[in-house]
Amino acid sequence: MPRPLRIDFVSDISCPWCIIGLRGLEIALERLADSSGAAVEVDLHFQPFELNPAMAPEGENIVAHIGRKYGATPEQSAANRATIRERAAAVGFTMAMGDTSRIYNSFDAHRLLHWAGIEGRQAALKHALFDSYFTQGQDISNREILAAAAVRAGLPEDEARAILSSDRYAAEVREAERLWQGRGIQSVPAIVIDNRYLISGGQPPESFEQALRQILAAEPADA
After folding, report:
1. Integer angstrom CA distances of residue 159 from 75, 148, 168
2. Neighbour tally for 27: CB within 10 Å
3. In the prediction, which pLDDT does 220 show?
4. CA-to-CA distance for 50 and 113, rounded, in angstroms?
């Protein structure tokens, strides 16, 4: 019997290290699946976290935002983005952010992700949203952009638009955000395995693989 493995991936669409961490995790899981004696049945859930819940509707320039929030100079911001681009490329993701890129509110994206989880298309939508934002440079608070991402993820456009034009799943997203913050999650990505083990940050595939193998060697959470 495959070993069941629940993974809660707490993250935000506007977090570049979250897609780097997600790809690292996915590559590690592929490596586990290809190895003998490590049959795993993964139950992956994406959980909401907003880095900028009070972001204005028009968003904010990334250089200005990073400078205001973290005190980084434009030169430091550019160097950080170069590092992020390299790390993203190493796991097969194109990061195309530059000096004119903007940070946007992600709450509606999280509402759609909640719905996608119900429909069994959450991972597909997560990837579509990351691509929209980081590769295509689109405004992921814009409902047209969000509806298009839902379609690319295999979800019905009319239902996506109906959700976006309402407040459906807002309460569920807020509740989930409070839950994970109450469990001590203050930065993302945070990857929680079997409700017991925490892996923090955009780790490379090798680090995820090593951690997962150690977890799999231990007793299951319900043993």
Report:
1. 43, 12, 11
2. 18
3. 58
4. 13
Domain boundaries, the chain: 3-217
Is 90 within 8 Å of 17 (Cβ atoms)? Answer: no
Phi, psi of 100 (to 5 degrees): -95, 0
Q: Which of 127, 88, 133 is nearest to 106 (CA)?
A: 133
Spell 142-177 as b/e; 16+ CB within 10 A means b: beebbbbbbeebebeeeebeebbeeeebeebbbebb
Condensed to tens digits (0 to 9), the pLDDT of residues 73-100 reads 999 999 999 999 999 999 999 999 999 9
Q: Could you tell me the fold of the domain covering 3-217? A: Glutaredoxin (3.40.30)
Its pTM stands at: 0.95
198, containing H or E segment: strand 197-200
Backbone torsions φ then ψ of 113, nearest 5 degrees? -65, -35
- Write the CB contacts of 93 (distance below 8 Å, at least 6 apart in sequence): 19, 20, 23, 130, 134, 135
Q: What is the chain's Cα-based Rg?
A: 18
